[in-house]
Write a structure and sequence with these properties.
Blueprint: H1 14-23, H2 29-38, H3 61-70, H4 76-85, E1 103-105, E2 112-116, E3 119-130, E4 137-141, E5 147-151, E6 157-162, E7 171-181, E8 186-187, H5 189-224, E9 226-227, E10 230-231, H6 236-260, H7 266-290, H8 302-315, H9 318-331
Parallel strand pairs: 1-4
Antiparallel strand pairs: 2-3, 3-7, 4-5, 5-8, 6-7, 9-10
Helix pairs in contact: 1-3, 3-5, 4-5, 5-6, 5-7, 5-8, 6-7, 7-8, 7-9
Amino acid sequence: MELEFNGMTPADFIDTARRAIAACEGKTMTEQAALLAGDGLLGICAPEGAGGLGMPLAFAVPVAQAGGGSLLAFPLIEMLVIARCLSAAHEGVAAAASGAKIVTVAWQGAANLAASGSGFVVSGTVGRAPFAESADVIVARVLDGRGVIIDRRNAGVSVGQTQTIDVIHPEFRVSLDGVAVAAGDILTADEMAELDRSACILRAAAIIGSADFCLATAQEHATTRKQFGKPLIANQAIRHHLARHKLALESARVVLGQAVSANGSPFSARAAFQAAVTGGILVSEGAIQIHGGMGFTWEVPLHFHLRHVRALEAQGDQAGNLDRLAEDYIAGFEPKSDAA
């Protein structure tokens, strides 16, 4: 990822992101937001007019990677993409970059939006909204492809936790019963599409961060754990196992690098997410297997990473993403004429 902006590259933010995220451990949601915003991370890609640094999306990649590797209990991806895509145009989420408001996105489902007097009302149920119970604002999709910005405390909004295998990053179902929405809090279909594209890239980054942790943990275990007087790494099958995982991870990293330099291509963003999901599951499951019987115990943290990768896979609708990726790929080929 060789992108440069004002003399800086994304790599310049890696250490800052890791330190800031490590400092969030044990803090409340509000305290975490203040810490991350204070280091400029939440607004790293937000427009300068909205209090951000105005950097390209590539500069948020190391932040998302650090969050995935540390299993940060915070709606980091949601805050980053909202600050980047919406904060300059919509007052309802303008405070996302500064951390003054906790904002999340309901990634699943769509509600119904209807005109009502001089405004609008939204009704229906949406889901997979990370940390929605602690959020001030929730962004949800409506049936025509647009979106709405909803104050969680508005009348008619109810939030209930749903079951998910990711025990560190809870997801919530949001029920909307005639919730009033101002015209300024309605998002265009293009804004929602850009929100989805940015989220694809940052989910890929978070998955790679988790996979990095899992691979490093597996390598350390294979190197230090001994059986019959020899380290596990002396077994050729273990070395081949680790080599395949390293290759999968590096392949996903390359596709992600191409996505952030592809000038906003939805195809490249979906490809990055697909590659990260495929490689992330392989690496995290493989790391558990390399640990043998102890890899399946609650005390070994690898399962938390696998759970998080699976949750991100579901939030990004991996199956639907694969279908759209295939459609985009096929559409890129013009049919040959009969004369040819």
